[in-house]
Write a structure and sequence with these properties.
Length: 144
């Protein structure tokens, strides 16, 4: 979990909101530190990723990207997706599922997203950042 020190960020945000130029608010950082994004673990029979963010609608975004998903299992139907005790139905749109049904889809950013149709997945499914997401092929219909 990341905590921000209000004694630094709040005054800085206030000055920027008042129109202060960036160089008067603080020094220019020439070499900012960036943290690598954790990659999903890939094996022949599964992809194991993590929930990395919850959006404002309660949808859960993972670190499993489309290239990894398609490169491992192709675009075949029948992927088995689970997170915690929840099995999720892979779909292409939120509207493909009935209200209250849990699902997964490739979101507009190209990453696997978990959701609860007409609900807040994070809250109602009890899932959170850091939880493990497992994708497996349906052994009878997977095509590579």
């Amino acid at each position: 979990m990341v905590f921000y020190h209000a004694g630094v960020f709040a005054p800085t945000a206030a000055r920027l909101a008042q129109g202060f130029p960036f160089d008067e608010v603080g020094p220019v950082i020439e070499d900012p530190a960036t943290l690598p994004r954790a990659a999903p673990q890939v094996a022949a029979d599964r992809i194991e990723g993590r929930i990395v963010r919850v959006d404002r609608f309660g949808n859960l975004l993972t670190n499993i990207d489309e290239a990894t998903l398609v490169g491992t299992f192709g675009r075949g139907e029948g992927l088995h997706i689970s997170c915690g005790r929840w099995p999720l139905t892979m779909t292409t749109t939120y509207g493909d599922l009935a209200p209250g049904e849990a699902g997964a889809l490739l979101g507009s950013a190209g990453y696997l997203e978990l959701f609860l149709r007409n609900g807040r997945g994070a809250l109602e499914l009890g899932l959170a950042v850091g939880d493990t997401v497992v994708v497996r092929p349906n052994t009878t219909t997977a095509d590579k």
